[in-house]
Amino acid sequence: MERGSGQAGVSIGHGHEHLRPTFEQALADLKDNVLRLGALVERAVERAARALVERDVDLADQVRWEDATVNELQRSINHEITSLIARQGPVARDVRELLALYHAAAELERMGDYATSIAKLAQQLASEPEEPIFRQIPEMERLCRSQLRAAMRALVDVSEEQARAVCAGDDELDALYKSVYESSIALMERSPDRARQATHMLFAAHHLERLGDRVTNIGEDVVFLVTGQIEDLNP
């Protein structure tokens, strides 16, 4: 009877021989679903940031509504991983790969929450006197999505090299966040009546910076998957 060794197998149930999905096929399906989750989150981040820039309340509403889909898919992935472990009894690298997918799904769900928080800020900002969005915020949004796509590819390819590159890219995001912080302070000093707008933009940048940290966590999981070593790549 097959274990989680990645070999195809046949199970016997109630006296009837029947084929069951191979571990490899189940793993491939899981990866597809995690990629799908990543795509949903990337879309949410793009739309939330666009709602912020364009003061689009309806678009922000859509981002908030669609977060339920992200949450539902994450729960489905976790259920399938738990069930697969119980059915197949995987060992060694197979266990680490399943745990990496489990952790990635959790990180993606949290990223979806950050996108929702940015959408809420967009709605608040839209009700206030117009103030141009700091140019760094759209840059952070694009960088976050690029890093997210790279992390998903590193996870699916199980590539240590790609994962380390993702983690190294977080420094640029941190620098942009620091720049937004300075811009916010400058705006509040220059125009105290714009303090609310400055604060909303600072919080939006903070959510993007935290989102980048979650992407880095996925990269660290991939490194652990390949090497078996836990490393802090975002000190």
Plain-language structure description:
The chain is mainly alpha-helical. The protein is 78% helix and 3% strand. The model is unreliable at 1-19 (pLDDT under 50). The chain is elongated, with a radius of gyration of 21 Å. It has helices at residues 23-54, 57-88, 92-126, 136-157, 160-168, 170-190, 195-227; strands at 10-13, 16-19. The protein has a two-stranded antiparallel ribbon with strand order 1-2. It is built from 7 helices and 2 strands; from the N terminus they run E-E-H-H-H-H-H-H-H.
Rg for CA atoms: 21 Å
| Mean pLDDT across all amino acids | 88
How does the helix and strand content classify structurally? mainly alpha
List low-confidence stretches: 1-19
Elements, N to C (H/E): EEHHHHHHH
What can be said about the biggest beta sheet?
A: 2 strands, antiparallel
Terminus-to-terminus distance: 44 Å
Number of strands: 2
Measured by DSSP, the beta-strand proportion falls in under 5%
Global shape: elongated
Strand order of the largest sheet: 1-2
Helical proportion, percent range:
over 70%
SS summary, helix count: 7
